[in-house]
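User: tokens in, sequence out, please.
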């Protein structure tokens, strides 16, 4: 069987590809882990960290065994770059955590507020003064997965509204829609998340 394996192909193609793939996986896991740590996910983050380091050790081990092969260095760096991109992409798709949306509008916001409240969003509205006069200031804390819905309807009711979105690490009290456990189901085979 060894007659069919070309050592040059293994050295310059197979090993670098495996190193690149390992780096893509471990950096993607690392990116997700950092984001989950920032959001206080105490159970899933350490599990991802375990696999991240295990895969990293395998990749770096191959590089250290083949220090004269420049293809391994390039594969290691390429895997790191692609892994960052994929990790961020996965985090956006999982949409973990809560965000605060602040909307500032000169127009009457009562239709937008009524629509959002009818769709089970909790909205706080305050009359305020902006640089060009009186404005309506709306606050809401929502799940990140709900941002596309919010974005569409803010633009529909108040196309010229100014709004900002920020991550929220901790929320206590308040009124929220039914919990979106989509991301938990993706990890349910790995760990059971304990409810407080």
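Assistant: Sequence out:
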């Amino acid at each position: 069987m060894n007659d069919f394996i070309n050592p040059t192909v293994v050295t310059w193609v197979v090993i670098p590809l495996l190193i690149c793939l390992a780096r893509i996986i471990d950096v993607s896991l690392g990116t997700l882990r950092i984001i989950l740590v920032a959001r206080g996910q105490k159970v899933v983050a350490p599990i991802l960290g375990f696999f991240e380091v295990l895969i990293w050790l395998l990749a770096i081990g191959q590089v250290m065994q083949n220090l004269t092969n420049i293809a391994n260095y390039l594969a290691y760096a390429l895997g790191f770059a692609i892994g960052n991109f994929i990790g961020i992409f996965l985090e956006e798709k999982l949409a973990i955590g809560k965000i605060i949306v602040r909307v500032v509008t000169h127009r009457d916001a009562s239709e937008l507020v009524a629509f959002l409240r009818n769709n089970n969003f909790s909205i706080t509205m305050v009359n305020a003064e902006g640089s060009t006069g009186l404005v309506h200031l709306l606050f809401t804390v929502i799940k990140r997965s709900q941002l596309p819905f919010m974005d569409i309807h803010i633009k529909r009711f108040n196309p010229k509204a100014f709004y900002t979105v920020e991550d929220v690490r901790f929320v206590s009290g308040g009124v929220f829609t039914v919990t979106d456990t989509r991301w938990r189901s993706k990890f349910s085979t790995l760990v059971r998340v304990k409810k407080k």
